[in-house]
UniProtKB/TrEMBL annotation:
PANTHER family: ACETYL-COA CARBOXYLASE (PTHR45728:SF3), ACETYL-COA CARBOXYLASE, ISOFORM A (PTHR45728). Residues 131-446 form the CoA carboxyltransferase C-terminal domain. GO terms for cellular component: mitochondrion. This is Acetyl-CoA carboxylase acc1. It holds the Pfam family Carboxyl_trans. Residues 1-127 form the CoA carboxyltransferase N-terminal domain. GO terms for biological process: fatty acid biosynthetic process. One of its GO terms (molecular function) is acetyl-CoA carboxylase activity. It comes from the Eukaryota.
Length: 542
């Protein structure tokens, strides 16, 4: 039978699909859609996850003529209606779009400049014209919507450039057409590549196009509030975290400013629970440093705190909050509405306000006439109207005090409060230290016996080697020590490896003396005479 006509082609396609899926977990994968991608070709674009689509080149499963034939009428006029950039960029299949092949290749080259040259190698740190040692001059407005990209890369204002957290001009946004209440991309901090997730504070319009195959369908426009996770934005967050981890091996910065998940009927039906849990799944598997930072006037509440809490992956995650940030189960208005209702406010008023207390005591007097009772009741109502707004403000302020960075630190839920103005300096050295430290810790883990390995113990060993006082907080000194003494550190790790091998051999002999000795005898028989004599001399003096 002739080859290449039917199911054997599908089998080959399955083989390619499996390899592409495994490759995404293992190495950096990216697809440039320079021409029509059909069927398994479309699936390969998605299985490689990162995709740049050229304008005018569709990603489709079935061509428009075939679908028209199936429907029995001319519904679609071109393949672009099915899988052009207006579909695939808006639904997150295409991470970026490009006008032509050259622009597409340029974007790939720029993307690759953020990632290590080989798996597990250090990330490429580029020279930066934007000094790490500077203030952040863009400050977000309080209780007003703004573009979160200004926090990331700064803002051009009338009187000059207001700088953001990351290097000027370094931010490259991805997935910009999909789930726009979350902003994701890659940026540099003092030349160090970082994956970035930010939160849009402005309301966004989400447009669902009408289906040409259904004459009754119409375009649907929904509004999505800023600072809230919807099913699509939760999925986008999880997708970005997976991309940063798999193949790219980038440290991650989450500028967390969510009030919670959208729990309305439509969003529950659209699987917000499922996509929210994907965020936790992605963070659990993350193997690079993660910094969760609540920015100035930002807030992190309820379920949105839970899915980014550092206890999810304590080895790599750290949480920080700006001094002007807030965090808690509910907003102060919500807490007061539940915990300090009107009747409790009136009880407090009777206890603290002598005038109202006297009136309340009078109202309980049974000997009062009906007219006197009404008069007392009217005075009480008047006093309540005067005092309730004051008591409400005090209770809101009291509830707000429980949400501030000071209490977060006191309860050990964040590592420390930060000032936005100095956050760039802090994160530059913290990031540099954590990256240096992780490379060393991974080398120590590989050199140690499984029975002996312990991250905490290895950190204690590094602290002893460094002799740096306040080792856990002096990030600049520790980072410089790692970099200046790299050769010395790795020679000590080599000594640890030798000790580990000695421990393993001893454990093997203890477990099975005869088998262990037989193995040593086999090894000795394969050695040159000089080496054999040297080993026997060592054994004879033991």
């Amino acid at each position: 039978a002739e080859d290449g006509l039917g199911v054997e082609c599908l089998k080959g396609s399955g083989l390619i699909a499996g390899e592409t899926s495994r490759a995404y977990e293992d190495i950096f994968t990216i697809t440039l859609v320079t021409c029509r991608s059909v069927g398994i070709g479309a699936y390969l674009v998605r299985l490689g996850q990162r995709a740049i689509q050229i304008e005018g080149q569709p990603i489709i499963l079935t061509g428009a003529p075939a679908i028209n034939k199936l429907l029995g009428r001319e519904v679609y006029t071109s393949n672009l209606q099915l899988g052009g950039t207006q579909i695939m960029y808006k639904n997150g299949v295409s991470h970026m779009t490009a006008g032509d092949d050259f622009e597409g290749v340029s974007k790939i080259v720029k993307w690759m400049s953020f990632i290590p040259d080989k798996k597990n190698n250090p990330i490429p740190i580029s020279p930066s014209t934007d000094s790490w040692d500077r203030d952040i001059t863009y400050f977000p407005p309080q209780k007003q919507p703004y573009d979160v990209r200004w926090l990331i890369h700064g803002k051009q204002e009338d009187d000059g450039f207001a700088s953001g957290l990351f290097d000027k001009g370094s931010f490259e946004e991805a997935l910009g057409g999909w789930a726009r209440t979350v902003v994701v991309g890659r940026a540099r901090l003092g030349g160090i590549p970082v994956g970035v997730i930010g939160v849009e504070t402005r309301s966004v319009e989400n447009v669902m196009p009408a289906d040409p195959a259904n004459p009754d369908s119409i375009e649907q426009v929904t509004n999505e509030a800023g600072g809230v996770w919807y099913p699509n934005s939760a999925f986008k967050t999880a997708q970005a975290i997976r991309d940063f981890n798999n193949g790219e091996q980038l440290p991650l910065m989450i500028l967390a400013n969510w009030r919670g998940f959208s729990g309305g009927q439509r969003d529950m039906y659209n699987e917000v629970l499922k996509y929210g849990s994907y965020i936790v799944d992605a963070l659990v598997k993350y193997e690079q440093p993660i910094f969760v930072y609540i920015p100035p006037f930002g807030e992190l509440r309820g379920g949105s705190w839970v899915v980014v809490d550092p206890t999810i992956n304590p080895q790599y995650m750290e949480m920080y909050a700006d001094e002007e940030a807030r965090g808690g189960v509910l907003e102060p208005e919500g807490i007061v509405g539940i915990k300090f209702r009107k009747e409790k406010q009136l009880e407090t008023m009777a206890r603290l306000d002598p005038t109202y207390g006297e009136l309340k005591a009078k109202s309980a007097d049974k000997s009062l006439s009906a007219e006197e009772a009404l008069e007392v009741k009217a005075k009480m109502t008047e006093r309540e109207k005067l005092l309730l707004p004051v008591y409400m403000q005090i209770s809101l302020q009291y509830a707000d005090l429980h949400d501030r960075a000071g209490r977060m630190k006191a309860k050990d839920t964040i590592r420390m409060p930060l000032q936005w103005q100095n956050a760039r300096r802090f994160f530059y050295w913290r990031l540099r230290r954590r990256l240096d430290e992780e490379y060393v810790l991974k080398a120590m883990a590989q050199s140690s016996s499984k029975e002996l390995v312990s991250r905490t113990k290895n950190l204690q060993t590094l602290e002893a080697w460094s002799g740096v006082p306040q080792f856990s907080t002096e990030d600049q000194k520790v980072a410089q020590w790692y970099e200046e003494n790299r050769q010395d550190i790795y020679s000590k790790i080599e000594n640890l490896k030798q000790e580990s091998i000695a421990y393993d051999v001893a454990a093997m002999l203890r477990a099975n003396k005869e088998g262990g000795l037989k193995g040593i005898a086999q090894m000795l028989s394969m050695l040159p005479v000089e080496e054999k004599e040297e080993i026997l001399k060592v054994l004879s003096t033991a």
